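Model: Ready when you are.
Researcher: Fold this.
Model:
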Amino acid sequence: MEKMKFTWKRIRKAFYSLDLDKNGYISKENMQLYFSSWGLTPEQFDWLYDKFDQDKDGKISYNDFTQTIGSELFPAETLYFRQAKP
């Protein structure tokens, strides 16, 4: 997480940097390219990809991405303030 936080300063920037095909989702292949230098085993990578794929459709959408790591990496971007109405 720290490495990702150091690399990107915004959720949207992080997502679109991993969406190499620019089709609105992160494929397993694209994410594998990013994580290839991290020394993960295939099992570790599969676990990680499965964790990111919240809706289990085989690809990581922006919504999946923000639900998975958005609040951890960029808490200010995921805060929503409610105003009480009388």
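Researcher: Now this one.
Model:
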Amino acid sequence: MTTEEAKRILELVQTITEEAMERGEEVRLSGFGIFRITDRAARTAYNPNNREPVQVPRRKGIVFKPSSRLAKKVKASGYVPD
């Protein structure tokens, strides 16, 4: 497969994922993981500079849950982020 073909496939997967998530559907990629939309409740956060409370409104978020296969490979790699 050429780089251009791979790029086109990834663009198609991204487009399909975006469209499915806009409809509120979860996207399962076998052996990779699941993307789904969550509803995040309104909350009070604190400004790290002055510790003043800030109201964060309710919003939707995206969650990715890796497949067990992917999680095992990452764990086995021994990678530790800085």
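Researcher: Key takeaway?
Model: The radius of gyration is 18 Å.
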